[in-house]
Structure formats: structure tokens, C-alpha cells
């Protein structure tokens, strides 16, 4: 009985109920002038329905709604996984920084087109147009900087059923005859980042898409007279999706959509090409002049540096000359062991015997030979020791000759210029060196 009372108190209707005017408990709540209303008796069936309504509300809030939300999340997760596994290549937009060789992209695109050629078309010996072997950026450069007419053919792998443009236009001999040195075609599918971005920039809504781009310009009237605006790249014709008019044949479409448009813009394009060619030649000439000027400046600078370096070398030799003033005179007999007797044989077969203190370095022999070659052996310098030290601190004398032994193994002393003479058996206490020009 207590359980029944609890159930009834829990699910009993707590809403508004009509009361009888004779009920004392309702007198205080009656409005003045209100009519007397009959109280509707509460039946057991109504109470049960109210209870069931609350139970269903309880079940809906606590069980049903969370279950529905959980199922939605599961279905969303499954949908994402299926798209990722089965439609990854079709639904994923290309990455802007994807680094793939554009020529490989074009070659793959052409191979895919060749695989889709119907046997009936192949039997007629029809071939693909000469697609541009390069990126769209390069093809666009040819259109903007060389004044070429650029066809662009964009495809979507998800729209393989739209074959009219490919079978009846692209493979048409009349269409292929359009291409020459001034008319090129570039193609790509939406897997190619450049094709994807191009489709967005051209607001392409249907695939496949065949468009024509070229430089165009308009003439505006000014107070000074008619003036042509700078040329800019424009889309002058396009064909997208399937066949628009079933009554039109492919040759009519090619003639109306492309041949007439090309004929309309070709006269102005010829003028633009001449202007671009003149601009290009002017730019080449300017760069050549700049190159020649820079080369001349560099050559003059090298001559100045060489002259300055040679002048510094002369000052260095004059400063060093007094140090070797007496090397051609034999030392006293008691000092002979402290000297190296070196015979120098010059390229003209002349010989000169010099005596160098054993603590001198091999560099001193090179300096003495340079003094002899430049006829500066008797020269002098007005430079003081401190002044000379500062002036020649970063200077390194370069010699255009080498000193080598006459007999094998022929040792070149150019690599031993920092060693003392007494440590070189080739010249201490006696030696013969050949002076050879390099």
C-alpha cells in the first residue's frame, strides 16, 4: 500500500483542476463575481494516462534521445571513414605546396586521355592535340609574354560520362588543325593543383571544360585622343559540360565557338606580338649593355687592384732590398758553417751564387730572386720599421716562378717557404736551385 501511495504521489497530476464553489477550501481562491463552476471528478483512467505520459517522457529524455545522438555520431564516423578510404582522391582538394614535376603531371594526363579514346575514334587515325609539355604557369607565360592563344582543357574524374567535348571536339581533326606556333593547348584534371586553382579562378561550374585565353585590350577615348589600355589575359570562349544543342554538330561548334573568336582577336594579337617582341629585344639589349658595363667595371677594378698590388709589391721589395745587399759576398771562413751556399740557375742559363744565414727562411731566397729579376737589388726605401710593419701587415708576396732541385726527386720549395734554411737538406749547407717561370 505504501508503494502504491509513492507511485501515485510521484506521477499524480499536479496541474490545474476545477473546483466546486461549495468546496470550502476553494472559497478563498474564487474571484469576485465569478460564476460557480462544477468540479470535474478525477477518474482512475485519467490518472493512469497521466502516469503513462510521465513514464514515456522519462523514457524519452533518459534513454531515447541519448541513444539517437549516439547513433548519429556512429553514422557520422562511418561516413567519414568511408569517404576517406574510397573517395580520398576524388574529394580531397590538392595541396597548394604539393611538389610534383609538372611535366610528369601533363604526361600522365595525356596518357589517361589516350586510355579513354574509343576504338571507333582510334580506327579513324585521330590523334590528340599537341598538349603543352610543362606547367600551366609556363603555358600562361607563353600567352602573356609571347602573345600566344592558349586553350585550356580541364577534366573532373567524377564526371567521366560527359564525353562530348573529348570525343567530338578534342579529337576532331578540324580542332587539331587550329594549333600552330601561335596557338597552344594545356590540360589537366582536378588532381593537379594548377588545374584545380585554374578552375576556381575561371569559375568553372561544369566539366569537362574547354576554354580559350589570350591577351586582349580595349581602346579608350581621352582628351588627347584614343588610347589603348594595357593588354591583359582574358577568357574569350568556353565550352563546358555536355552537348548544349543536340542539333549542332561538332564542326559547327568548333567554327562558332573557336574559329570565329580566334579570327576576331588575331589582328590585335599580331600587333601585341610585335610589341612584345620589341619589348623583349629591348630588354635583351638592355641586359647585354648592363652586362658589358659590369664586365668593363670589373675589368677596370681588377686592373686597378693589380696596379695597386704591383705597386705595393715594389715598395715591399725596395724595403727588403737592404737586407740582401751582401748575400752575394762570401762570409768569413770562421762563419761559413752559419751560412748556406746556394747556386741559383735562371731560365737564361745564367748563374748567381748567394750566401744566406742558416736561420733565414726559404721565403728570403724567393724575395732575393724577385729582387734580381726586377733589378731592385740596390734599391732603398724611406719607410720606417713601424710604418712598414703597418703597411705590409696583410700583404703576401706572390711569385711567378718556383725554385726546384735539378735532380730527381725534384722538390719544389714553394711549399716550404716558412721553414728555416738550415732545416732543408737540399740547400744547406750547399745546394743548387733552378729558377723556373710559372
Largest sheet: 4 strands, mixed
* Name of the CATH first level of the domain at 102-117 and 124-219 and 227-283: Alpha Beta
Mean pLDDT: 83
What's the CATH architecture name of the domain at 102-117 and 124-219 and 227-283?
3-Layer(aba) Sandwich
Order of helices and strands: HHHHHHHEHHEHEEEEHEEHHEE
CATH superfamily of the domain at 102-117 and 124-219 and 227-283: Glutaredoxin
Strand arrangement, major sheet = 2-1-3-6
Stretches where pLDDT is under 50 for at least 5 consecutive residues are 10-30, 86-98
Shape: elongated
CATH topology (level 3) name of the domain at 102-117 and 124-219 and 227-283: Glutaredoxin
Helix content: 40-55%
Straight-line N-to-C gap: 127 Å
Number of helices: 13
| Rg on CA atoms, Å | 50 Å
Protein name: UBX domain-containing protein
Region (Disordered): 15-46
GO molecular function, one term: ubiquitin binding
InterPro entries: Thioredoxin-like_sf, UAS, Ubiquitin-like_domsf, UBX_dom, UBX_domain-protein
Amino acid at each position: 500500500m505504501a508503494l502504491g501511495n509513492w507511485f501515485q504521489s510521484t506521477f499524480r497530476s499536479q496541474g490545474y483542476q476545477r473546483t466546486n464553489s461549495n468546496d470550502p477550501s476553494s472559497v478563498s481562491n474564487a474571484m469576485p463575481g465569478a460564476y460557480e463552476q462544477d468540479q470535474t471528478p478525477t477518474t482512475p483512467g485519467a490518472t493512469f494516462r497521466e502516469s503513462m505520459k510521465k513514464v514515456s517522457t522519462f523514457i524519452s529524455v533518459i534513454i531515447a534521445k541519448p541513444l539517437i545522438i549516439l547513433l548519429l555520431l556512429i553514422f557520422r564516423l562511418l561516413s567519414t571513414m568511408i569517404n576517406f578510404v574510397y573517395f580520398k582522391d576524388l574529394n580531397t582538394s590538392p595541396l597548394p605546396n604539393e611538389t610534383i614535376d609538372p611535366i610528369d603531371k601533363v604526361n600522365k594526363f595525356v596518357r589517361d586521355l589516350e586510355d579513354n579514346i574509343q576504338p571507333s575514334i582510334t580506327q579513324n587515325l585521330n590523334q590528340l592535340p599537341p598538349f603543352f609539355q610543362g606547367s600551366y604557369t609556363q603555358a600562361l607565360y607563353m600567352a602573356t609574354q609571347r602573345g600566344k592563344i592558349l586553350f585550356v582543357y580541364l577534366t573532373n574524374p567524377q564526371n567521366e560520362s560527359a564525353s562530348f567535348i573529348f570525343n567530338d571536339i578534342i579529337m576532331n581533326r578540324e580542332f587539331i588543325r587550329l594549333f600552330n606556333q601561335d596557338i597552344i593547348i594545356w590540360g589537366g584534371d582536378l588532381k593537379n593543383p594548377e588545374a584545380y586553382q585554374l578552375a576556381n579562378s575561371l569559375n568553372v561550374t561544369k566539366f569537362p571544360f574547354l576554354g580559350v585565353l589570350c591577351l586582349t585590350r580595349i581602346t579608350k577615348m581621352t582628351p588627347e585622343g584614343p588610347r589603348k589600355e594595357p593588354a591583359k589575359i582574358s577568357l574569350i570562349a568556353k565550352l563546358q559540360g555536355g552537348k548544349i544543342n543536340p542539333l549542332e554538330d561538332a564542326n559547327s561548334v568548333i567554327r562558332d565557338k573557336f574559329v570565329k573568336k580566334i579570327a576576331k582577336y588575331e589582328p590585335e594579337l599580331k600587333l601585341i606580338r610585335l610589341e612584345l617582341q620589341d619589348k623583349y629585344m629591348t630588354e635583351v639589349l638592355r641586359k647585354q649593355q648592363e652586362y658589358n658595363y659590369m664586365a668593363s667595371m670589373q675589368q677596370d677594378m681588377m686592373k686597378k687592384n693589380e696596379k695597386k698590388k704591383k705597386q705595393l709589391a715594389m715598395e715591399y721589395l725596395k724595403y727588403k732590398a737592404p737586407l740582401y745587399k751582401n748575400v752575394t759576398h762570401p762570409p768569413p771562413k770562421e762563419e761559413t758553417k752559419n751560412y748556406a751556399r746556394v747556386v741559383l740557375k735562371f731560365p737564361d742559363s745564367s748563374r748567381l751564387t748567394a750566401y744566406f744565414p742558416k736561420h733565414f727562411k726559404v721565403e728570403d731566397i724567393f724575395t732575393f730572386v724577385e729582387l734580381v729579376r726586377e733589378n731592385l737589388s740596390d734599391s732603398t726605401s724611406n719607410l720606417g720599421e713601424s710604418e712598414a710593419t703597418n703597411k705590409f701587415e696583410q700583404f703576401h708576396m706572390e711569385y711567378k716562378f718556383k725554385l726546384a732541385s735539378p735532380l730527381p726527386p725534384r722538390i719544389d720549395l714553394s711549399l716550404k717557404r716558412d721553414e728555416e734554411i738550415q732545416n732543408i737538406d737540399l740547400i744547406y749547407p750547399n745546394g743548387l736551385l733552378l729558377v723556373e717561370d710559372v
